[in-house]
Every structure is written in structure tokens, then in C-alpha cells.
Design brief:
By secondary structure, the protein is of the alpha/beta class. The protein folds into two domains: 110 residues, Sandwich (Immunoglobulin-like), CATH 2.60.40.1180; 347 residues, Alpha-Beta Barrel (TIM Barrel), CATH 3.20.20.80. 31% of the residues lie in helices and 24% in strands. The protein has ten helices and 21 strands. The strands form four sheets. It has a nine-stranded mixed beta sheet. The chain is globular, with a radius of gyration of 26 Å. It starts with a helix and ends in a 10-residue tail after the last strand.
């Protein structure tokens, strides 16, 4: 026997064993480092307000068939709340000789067809919200021109007509789902018609006085400051600080608009800053714990073109980014996230023309009900981000408890976990916003063996049914969350895990 080859063989075996031990150690370290521990006893949000949608009266009114389709899709999504904006000239026609407002409901609708048509659209949206018990944030775009009179944000007459309208909607029309009223949309923007923080604050004081005089403050609360921006553009957070300090007794809920840059989402800056702002408000407003904090409008500004269009809403990646955005809002302790917006056909980017072209509409929606009219019928289908928005809305509904979930030390990775009061239901959203595969193990101490459905949202793996209805990748498989469930996520995507049995059946 030749001893030299034998010694080489032994040496190779030892090398192989050594490498195997090292690889096992690395793998074990990776699994330990990629553990997600969910603490059901550590509450971040005790009563989440849900996932919302901006739904406004239309610039291009959908035909009855399209309207029915919109309602069916909203039934599928089950939003937690709507934000609805309109203009006072849809219900106030001006002032009489004594300076009293003239309202559409007191006059002949036949002679005021345009105002009546706009008001009917608002009623249709509120009818749906009332029938489905969806809370509504109702607001006005900016100081209106009523008849021949242009009002300003500090004009006491605007507060009066807004309070009269709320009284009409609640006491006459019986819309009990109207919970919040917004005075000026994005008052820190010059397009709002508001001049300054001071003029806006003066208007808030008038509105609060008028609501209180009618005892409407028992039904609705003023929400604000409703400012917009991000960390580089029109910084909206200063007004939040000022409102909590200056007029906390007049504000019943706080909200911001954040049109985020990609870097703010990818680097987790949103979660950090929103947590800081929430802590500031809680320290400053003695009653803040009893007031919801919403993201009043949510979207990505990176990639916006043509004035105010966001073509990325057509892309798969927008659904991942908005899931990441939402996870950070919930993890920071804020109580709701509202998508801008429902349908391209609601708002114009350029002048209104009989048949819209590629530049006419604000391209931000889940779909475009004017797609066929524009020669693009495929635009009427739900876009990819409606997939993630629908699942987030169904799995983190109004009343959910958001609990703490430790995230592994990996960039561009977020976990959001929601449960109910008895900890019988659980839903988890895992977002991998990186260009590499990730494998994690999720453990929920105290949660017994259950059955979990898995929904995948990846570029080449997102099962859908008719009308792009989300379908589970794996329905109701047995899983032991107490021992841990391993989840692998290919790059750039979202996994939803839930033991809730939800029906997303197309019902239109």
C-alpha cells in the first residue's frame, strides 16, 4: 500500500469535516441572527384605525357599470376609513342681501344643476361609507369662491358654512360615519389658498367655535395640521409640533401627508422620524393618547413627472415600497395610513377636456376608470399595488392591536404584526425591500399551533384570480408559531401570513 495517498486522503477528510463544521456554525449563526420574536404583550398601537383610501367626487364621473365595479373592489379591500375632499361651492351658492349663506338644499336644484351634480357625487360616496360603516375624514380643498365672493382661510364665514354643512350631513342626511373634519387641504402649500400658519390657526378657531355652537363637537372632531412634504421638500413636521403646543384643545386627531422619497423608505427614516414626532405630541398635548394620529395622504414622490403624475403606480415595485411605507407607519405607533388615491379619473392634472389624454389626469390611482375612453382598457384593471393594499386592509383592520416584532439586523427589511384583543387572530407582513434573498424564522411565544395562509407578492409570484384578486400561495397550512416558522423571501417582495379566513371572492 502506498502511504502517501492514504495520508492525503486523511488530510482531505479532515479538511472537509473542518469546513463542514465552520459552515454549520455560520448557518446556525445566521438562523439565530435572523430570528423575529413577536411579543404579544408589548403593544405599539392599542386600536389601529385601519388602512384608508382617498376617494373624492370625480372630475370624470364613471358610468354606472364602472361605478358598480369600483364598489365591488372596495368591498374586496374593506378600507378602514376614507378621506374625502370637496369644495364648498358644491353646496353654498353665495350670500343673500343680509349676508346669510344660500345653500343648495334650500334652493331649487333644477336651477343649480352643476352644484347639485357635484353634491350628489359626494352623497354617493358617503352613502357607500354609511352602508359599510367606514369612518370618514371629510375636508375641503381650500378657501372657496361662493357665488361672487372669494373667501379666505381666516374668514369667519367659511367656518360658519362648513359647520352648517356638517349639521346638514349629520342631522338631515344621517351620515354618522363622518368622524373628522379637515379645514384646509395641505395648508402649508401655496396651492391651498392659505397664507400662513397664523391664518390657518385663526380659521381653525372660527370653525371650532361654530361646531361647538351647534353641539356638533360631540359628533365630529377637527383633524390637523394636514401639512405635506418630506425631509427635503416642504417640511411638514413643524406645524405638527406647533399645533400640539398652541391649540391642542381644538384638535381631535393629528394627521400629516408624507410623499416619501425612496431613500426615506429604504433606509427606514420614516419609522424613526414618525416615532419621534409621536413622542413629541404625547409629551406636549396632555390628551394626545385619546387622539388618533393618521397619515392623511401617503405616496412616493420619487419618479413624479408631468406636474403631478406618478407612473410608478403601474409597477410591481410600487406595491413593495408602499407596504414598506405602511409597515414603518404602524411600527412607529401611528394609527392609520391613507393611500393617495383611489382612481385616476377623480382629479385633473391639466385642463378638463371632453376626452382625457395622457396628460389630463393625475396618475396616482389603483386604476383608471377612463381607460377605455382613452383607448387603454387595460388601465381599468387594478394595478399591482392594490394587491398589497387590499391584503394590508383586510389583515390589519380597524380595531387591530399592533404589537412589537423585533426585526433582524438586515437593511431594507420590515415586519408588521397585528392581533386582536384575545390574541386568537394574528396577521404578519414581512417586507424584503432588498435585492437579495432573505430567510427568517418567526416565533410568537404563547401562540399555540395554528393554521396559516401565506400570500406572496413578488414580481413573478403573486397568485391572482379574476380582476387581479389576491389568492393565497398556501392556504391554511398547519404551523407552530411558538416553535417558529421559517419564511424565505426572494428579493424585493412581501409575504403575508395570517390565521384569518378571509374571502376575497369577486362579487361584482
Amino acid at each position: 500500500m502506498n502511504l502517501l495517498p492514504c495520508s492525503k486522503l486523511i488530510s482531505n477528510v479532515l479538511l472537509t469535516v473542518t469546513l463542514s463544521i465552520l459552515m454549520l456554525a455560520v448557518r446556525c449563526h445566521a438562523v439565530a441572527g435572523d430570528m423575529i420574536d413577536v411579543d404579544l404583550k408589548s403593544t405599539i398601537v392599542s386600536s389601529f384605525q385601519g388602512i384608508g383610501i382617498q376617494w373624492d367626487p370625480y372630475s370624470y364621473q364613471p358610468a354606472p357599470k364602472e361605478w358598480k365595479l369600483i364598489l365591488a373592489r372596495l368591498d374586496r379591500c374593506k378600507p378602514g376609513y376614507f378621506r374625502v375632499c370637496h369644495s364648498a361651492n358644491s353646496y353654498c351658492l353665495g350670500f343673500d342681501d343680509k349676508g346669510n349663506p344660500i345653500y343648495v338644499w334650500d334652493e331649487s336644484r333644477k336651477s343649480n344643476k352643476e352644484a347639485a351634480r357635484s353634491l350628489d357625487q359626494l352623497y354617493a360616496i358617503l352613502d357607500y361609507a354609511q352602508s359599510r360603516n367606514v369612518d370618514v375624514i371629510l375636508g375641503e380643498w381650500g378657501p372657496p369662491r361662493v357665488g361672487s365672493v372669494q373667501l379666505s382661510s381666516e374668514d369667519p364665514r367659511w367656518g360658519r358654512i362648513m359647520a352648517d354643512f356638517i349639521k346638514h350631513l349629520i342631522q338631515v342626511k344621517r351620515y354618522t360615519v363622518i368622524k373628522y373634519i379637515n379645514y384646509v387641504n395641505e395648508p402649508n402649500g401655496d396651492w391651498s389658498g392659505n397664507k400662513s400658519y397664523g391664518t390657518w390657526t385663526q380659521g381653525i378657531k372660527y370653525l371650532h367655535k361654530e361646531l361647538k355652537a351647534r353641539e356638533l363637537d360631540k359628533w365630529v372632531h377637527i383633524i390637523g395640521p394636514d401639512t405635506t412634504g418630506n425631509t427635503d421638500w416642504m417640511e411638514p413636521f413643524t406645524w405638527l409640533d406647533l399645533v400640539a403646543k398652541d391649540i391642542p384643545g381644538m384638535i381631535g386627531a393629528y394627521d400629516l401627508h408624507w410623499y416619501a422619497q425612496d431613500k426615506e423608505v429604504l433606509e427606514g427614516k420614516m419609522e424613526t422620524l414618525l416615532r419621534e414626532k409621536r413622542e413629541w405630541v404625547l409629551k406636549t398635548d396632555p390628551d394626545a393618547r385619546n387622539k388618533p394620529m393618521f397619515m392623511g395622504e401617503s405616496g412616493l414622490i420619487t419618479g413624479r413627472v408631468n406636474g403631478d403624475q406618478q407612473p410608478r403606480v403601474r409597477s410591481f415595485e410600487y406595491g413593495v415600497m408602499m407596504a414598506d411605507y405602511t409597515a414603518q407607519v404602524g411600527r412607529a405607533g401611528w394609527m392609520g395610513v391613507m393611500a393617495w388615491d383611489c382612481d385616476d379619473a377623480m382629479h385633473t392634472n391639466k385642463e378638463h377636456i371632453p376626452v382625457p389624454n395622457d396628460l389630463t389626469l393625475k396618475l396616482w390611482g389603483f386604476w383608471n376608470t377612463q381607460g377605455s375612453m382613452m383607448g387603454k382598457p387595460e388601465e381599468e384593471l387594478p394595478r399591482p399595488w392594490f394587491y398589497t393594499w387590499t391584503l394590508m386592509s383586510r389583515l390589519f383592520p380597524r380595531g387591530s392591536i399592533i404589537v412589537k416584532a423585533g426585526s433582524p439586523e438586515m437593511p431594507r427589511f420590515r415586519v408588521l404584526v397585528g392581533t386582536d384583543a384575545g390574541h386568537k387572530q394574528i396577521s404578519m407582513m414581512l417586507v424584503n425591500n432588498a435585492d437579495e434573498n432573505r430567510t427568517v424564522t418567526v416565533k410568537v411565544p404563547g401562540f399555540k399551533t395554528t393554521r396559516l395562509s401565506r400570500y406572496n407578492y413578488f414580481d413573478n409570484d403573486r397568485p391572482v384570480g379574476p380582476d387581479n384578486i389576491p389568492l393565497p400561495k398556501e392556504p391554511m397550512l398547519r404551523a407552530n408559531l411558538e416553535q417558529g416558522v421559517q419564511v424565505t423571501l426572494p428579493s424585493r417582495g412581501v409575504v403575508f401570513l395570517t390565521n384569518k379566513e378571509i374571502s376575497l371572492k369577486d362579487n361584482h
